[in-house]
């Protein structure tokens, strides 16, 4: 059977990669000098690279391999589906069984009236769908001027022109002419970095009220929707104060604003429930999903839409769709992934075993001299690196330098932990065991110790003034 072999030496593979492969969110020249790490195989929570290292993946890939690596059931279902019906589209009044079965299953898992799904192949595509969905919804209801979408600074909703505009990442907006018109960003509920003298509760209310201020400023008749991640992921696992979401919900309800919960990271068990909206007590009209839907085994995402929005959109033709909307192989794999999550009671494992163990390990790191707050919900957590815990100080050096150093030390200790500026984040496979969590804690502490030594040696532990 022909396969892609790993027969070339690492250096040669790295040279070919540098010559031909453009990497996302990467400085190409810098990577070419260093050489990319080449991952060759994976099982459970461990990755293996071309140099024979076994690396504990604290990030479940990119927040997606919820079920863990190497599940043969998913490969078997993919192979079987490819043989039976490798592809057909869902345009022009056709459908197929995998898309039907997956749509029905998702409707069963989702709360309340979220019973309809428009499929895409990624979170970015699904959020692009959402922009058109909410504007078309209001236009169909005779309110075409209701088209502004409010989002948040430091949110991540994808990398396409539309979803990148919804996101609030300044470095992304600086390239390629983003954001598109009629998207407004309010501040994020990041108490540690931006809370000042306010209590977390006061700060949560104040940040939610910014939504109301924009609605009042622009006029309620011009606002289509508010989009947010229940817990910001790529922004650094920012868990809002508990006053935040109830106030946001009140405002959306009061002014007839559609609420879009971007569940791309929070969905499919990450927070201990099927959806982050359930954990945070939110009632969205639309949810964006991807990643954990298939545990990353196939590219698939979608917009889950409530009955009312579906009814209005369905009253005419929605001129939107992707070649791979509801792709049969991706749908079959997603369905099997959900079947395994259910059959193996993986959400129960999260709630009763993995999340409590992870919480204990994570908060234990809080006694490290470099670590400020440690925060966690379910299986997503972050910690703030700081030169002074009491004052919640930032570093005097450029933001992200300490985080990058820590990430490098994690790699050196065969642990994948991501940094977002000077926050370290984790989001391991949901199936991780307490022993593996212990091992993760050991490696994380070694990395923090080494990072501390390096920063000290370079006189980089100075707080910003
Ligand atoms: N919404 C959210 C909340 C996400 O986290 C997307 C949408 C876009 O999904 P796609 O499938 O188009 O990538 C995401 C993706 C990181 C990182 O480094 C995070 C994401 C993607 C790539 C890197 O934290 N999140």
What are the defining features of this structure?
Aspartate Aminotransferase, domain 1, 2 domains, seven-stranded mixed β-sheet, four-stranded mixed β-sheet, 17 helices, single chain, alpha/beta
Task: Describe the sheet with the most strands.
Answer: 7 strands, mixed
CATH topology of the largest domain: Aspartate Aminotransferase, domain 2
Known CATH architecture of the largest domain: 3-Layer(aba) Sandwich
Assembly status: single chain
Low-confidence stretches: none
Helical residues, percent: 40-55%
Secondary structure tally, helices: 17
The average pLDDT score comes to: 96
Question: What gyration radius follows from the Cα positions, in whole Å?
Answer: 22 Å
Output the structural class: alpha/beta
**Bound compounds, please?**
3-[O-phosphonopyridoxyl]--amino-benzoic acid
- What's the name of the CATH homologous superfamily of the largest domain? Type I PLP-dependent aspartate aminotransferase-like (Major domain)
Termini separation comes to 62 Å
Q: For the record, what CATH class of the largest domain applies?
A: Alpha Beta
Strand arrangement, largest sheet? 4-10-9-8-7-5-6
Domain count: the total is 2
Number of strands: 15
Amount of beta strand: 15-25%
Q: Looking at the structure, what is the overall shape?
A: globular
Describe what this molecule looks like in 3D.
The protein is α/β, with parallel strands linked by helices. The chain folds into two domains: 37-70 and 345-457, Aspartate Aminotransferase, domain 1, CATH 3.90.1150; 73-343, 3-Layer(aba) Sandwich (Aspartate Aminotransferase, domain 2), CATH 3.40.640.10. The protein is 42% helix and 15% strand. It is built from 17 helices and 15 strands. The chain has a seven-stranded mixed beta sheet with strand order 4-10-9-8-7-5-6, sandwiched between helices. A four-stranded mixed beta sheet has the order 1-2-3-13. A hairpin with a 2-residue loop joins strand 14 (418-420) and strand 15. Helix 5 (97-109) runs parallel beside helix 14. The chain is globular, with a radius of gyration of 22 Å. It starts with 9 loop residues before the first helix and ends in an 8-residue tail after the last helix. The site of 3-[O-phosphonopyridoxyl]--amino-benzoic acid has 18 residues, from helix 6.
């Amino acid at each position: 059977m022909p396969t892609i072999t790993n027969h070339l030496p690492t250096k040669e593979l790295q040279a070919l990669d540098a010559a031909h492969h453009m990497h996302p969110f990467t400085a190409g020249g810098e990577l070419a000098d260093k050489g990319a790490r080449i991952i060759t195989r994976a099982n459970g929570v461990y990755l293996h690279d071309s140099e024979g290292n076994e690396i504990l993946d604290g990030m479940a890939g990119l927040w997606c391999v919820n079920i863990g690596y190497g599940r043969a059931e998913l490969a078997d279902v993919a192979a079987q589906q490819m043989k039976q019906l490798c592809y057909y589209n869902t345009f022009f009044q056709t459908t197929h069984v995998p898309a039907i079965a997956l749509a029905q299953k998702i409707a069963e898992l989702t709360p309340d009236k979220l019973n309809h799904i428009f499929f895409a192949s990624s979170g970015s595509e699904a959020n692009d769908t959402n922009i058109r969905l909410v504007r078309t919804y209001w236009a169909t209801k005779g309110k075409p001027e209701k088209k502004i979408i409010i989002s948040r600074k430091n949110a991540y909703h994808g990398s396409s022109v539309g979803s990148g505009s919804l996101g609030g990442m300044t470095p992304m907006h600086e390239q390629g002419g983003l954001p598109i018109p009629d998207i407004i960003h309010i501040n994020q509920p990041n108490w540690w970095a931006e809370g000042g003298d306010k209590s977390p509760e006061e700060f949560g209310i104040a940040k939610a009220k910014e939504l109301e201020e924009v609605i009042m400023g622009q006029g309620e008749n011009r606002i289509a929707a508010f989009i947010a991640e229940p817990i910001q992921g790529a922004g650094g696992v920012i868990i809002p104060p508990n006053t935040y979401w109830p106030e946001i919900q009140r405002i959306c309800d009061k002014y007839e604003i559609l609420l879009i919960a971007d569940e791309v990271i929070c969905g499919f068990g990450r927070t201990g429930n099927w959806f982050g909206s359930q954990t945070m007590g939110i009632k969205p009209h639309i949810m964006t999903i991807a990643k954990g839907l298939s545990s990353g085994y196939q590219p698939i995402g979608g917009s889950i839409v409530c009955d009312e929005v579906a009814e209005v959109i369905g009253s005419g033709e929605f001129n939107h769709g992707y070649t791979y909307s509801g792709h049969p192989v991706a749908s079959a794999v997603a369905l099997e992934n959900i079947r395994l999550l259910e059959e193996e009671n993986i959400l129960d494992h999260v709630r009763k075993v993995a999340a409590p163990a992870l919480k204990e390990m994570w908060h234990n790191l809080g006694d490290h001299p470099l670590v400020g707050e440690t925060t966690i919900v379910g299986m997503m957590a972050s910690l703030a690196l700081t030169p002074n815990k009491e004052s919640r100080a930032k570093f005097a050096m450029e933001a992200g330098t300490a985080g990058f150093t820590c990430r490098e030390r994690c790699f050196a200790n065969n642990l994948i932990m991501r940094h977002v500026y000077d926050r370290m984040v984790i989001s391991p496979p949901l199936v991780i065991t307490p022993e593996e969590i212990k091992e993760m804690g050991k490696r994380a502490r070694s990395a923090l110790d080494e990072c501390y030594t390096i920063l000290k040696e370079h006189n980089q532990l100075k707080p910003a003034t």
